[in-house]
Amino acid sequence: QLDQKLAGHQVLITAGPTREPLDPVRYLTNRSSGKMGYAIAEAAQKMGADVVLVSGPTNLDCPDQISCIRVETAEEMLKAVSAEASKSTIFISAAAVADYRLKEVATKKMKKQGSSLHLELEQNPDILATTSKANPDLFTVGFAAETNDVIEYAMGKLKRKQLNMIVANQVGGGKGFDKDSNQVDILTDGGDHISLPETSKQQLAFDILDVVCQFYSKDQSNKS
Ligand code: PMT
């Protein structure tokens, strides 16, 4: 029997990539498998939380006793997250959301057009920033997937997106995406820096949630 540290909480988690269509048969996406976000969802459920998992397209099954909402695009993910956020106490954004989508999606399969092709992209909404700003009482935890200057960029996202905490994740060169293990550093809005050792994504999920619980309690006692 695990310590039920998250009993009484609704934890909202995003996982996996988003898929942005170009035409009826093609799309833009990234290398996220969903493993990290799904591991956090399972760990949160085992720690007593009611878990809502909003997932982009992955090959993973919805874990037992978790409410899963499947989406494809960033816009669909934002809609699902917005509907659940006000019912939740903690939001963990592990999804690798596409920053851009095609400005005009073709309704018919695009034809070959000579030696180069230019696609006009427009920015997707930032789900994490939108949600944290719209729900100031929600404890928000972002991820930052970076190939370089990981801590510096993560710190910038923590502040810009008004988060309680960010999980800085070195990616590229065989790290992070689609692996069974991972290593992260956690930064908080109070200036704390916790380095977690490399381990399986299943174990890391519990380690991340232990830190979330610790700082959630601190945040609540500061408010009262
Ligand atoms: O899925 P796996 O294969 O297991 O890999 C795990 C992972 C590497 C994808 C995961 O650990 C991770 O780092 N997820 C965040 C990936 C990411 O897109 O990071 P980012 O630095 O681009 O985005 C920063 C934060 O803003 C993230 O919390 C992201 O979910 C969020 N975001 C980004 C853009 C956007 N339009 N909306 C968002 O909500």
UniProtKB/TrEMBL annotation:
<keyword id="KW-0285">Flavoprotein</keyword>
<comment type="function">
    <text>Catalyzes two steps in the biosynthesis of coenzyme A. In the first step cysteine is conjugated to 4'-phosphopantothenate to form 4-phosphopantothenoylcysteine, in the latter compound is decarboxylated to form 4'-phosphopantotheine.</text>
</comment>
<feature type="binding site">
    <location>
        <position position="99"/>
    </location>
    <ligand>
        <name>CTP</name>
    </ligand>
</feature>
<protein>
    <recommendedName>
        <fullName>Coenzyme A biosynthesis bifunctional protein CoaBC</fullName>
        <ecNumber>4.1.1.36</ecNumber>
        <ecNumber>6.3.2.5</ecNumber>
    </recommendedName>
</protein>
<comment type="function">
    <text>Catalyzes two sequential steps in the biosynthesis of coenzyme A. In the first step cysteine is conjugated to 4'-phosphopantothenate to form 4-phosphopantothenoylcysteine. In the second step the latter compound is decarboxylated to form 4'-phosphopantotheine.</text>
</comment>
<keyword id="KW-0436">Ligase</keyword>
<comment type="pathway">
    <text>Cofactor biosynthesis; coenzyme A biosynthesis; CoA from (R)-pantothenate: step 3/5.</text>
</comment>
<feature type="binding site">
    <location>
        <position position="161"/>
    </location>
    <ligand>
        <name>CTP</name>
    </ligand>
</feature>
<dbReference type="GO" id="GO:0010181">
    <property type="term" value="F:FMN binding"/>
</dbReference>
<keyword id="KW-0460">Magnesium</keyword>
<feature type="region of interest" description="Phosphopantothenate--cysteine ligase">
    <location>
        <begin position="11"/>
        <end position="224"/>
    </location>
</feature>
<dbReference type="GO" id="GO:0046872">
    <property type="term" value="F:metal ion binding"/>
</dbReference>
<dbReference type="GO" id="GO:0015941">
    <property type="term" value="P:pantothenate catabolic process"/>
</dbReference>
<dbReference type="GO" id="GO:0004632">
    <property type="term" value="F:phosphopantothenate--cysteine ligase activity"/>
</dbReference>
<feature type="binding site">
    <location>
        <position position="109"/>
    </location>
    <ligand>
        <name>CTP</name>
    </ligand>
</feature>
<keyword id="KW-0479">Metal-binding</keyword>
<keyword id="KW-0456">Lyase</keyword>
<dbReference type="GO" id="GO:0015937">
    <property type="term" value="P:coenzyme A biosynthetic process"/>
</dbReference>
<comment type="similarity">
    <text>In the N-terminal section; belongs to the HFCD (homo-oligomeric flavin containing Cys decarboxylase) superfamily.</text>
</comment>
<feature type="domain" description="DNA/pantothenate metabolism flavoprotein C-terminal">
    <location>
        <begin position="6"/>
        <end position="214"/>
    </location>
</feature>
<comment type="pathway">
    <text>Cofactor biosynthesis; coenzyme A biosynthesis; CoA from (R)-pantothenate: step 2/5.</text>
</comment>
<keyword id="KW-0210">Decarboxylase</keyword>
<dbReference type="GO" id="GO:0004633">
    <property type="term" value="F:phosphopantothenoylcysteine decarboxylase activity"/>
</dbReference>
<keyword id="KW-0288">FMN</keyword>
<dbReference type="GO" id="GO:0071513">
    <property type="term" value="C:phosphopantothenoylcysteine decarboxylase complex"/>
</dbReference>
<feature type="binding site">
    <location>
        <position position="157"/>
    </location>
    <ligand>
        <name>CTP</name>
    </ligand>
</feature>
<feature type="binding site">
    <location>
        <begin position="125"/>
        <end position="128"/>
    </location>
    <ligand>
        <name>CTP</name>
    </ligand>
</feature>
<comment type="similarity">
    <text>In the C-terminal section; belongs to the PPC synthetase family.</text>
</comment>
<keyword id="KW-0511">Multifunctional enzyme</keyword>
<feature type="binding site">
    <location>
        <position position="143"/>
    </location>
    <ligand>
        <name>CTP</name>
    </ligand>
</feature>
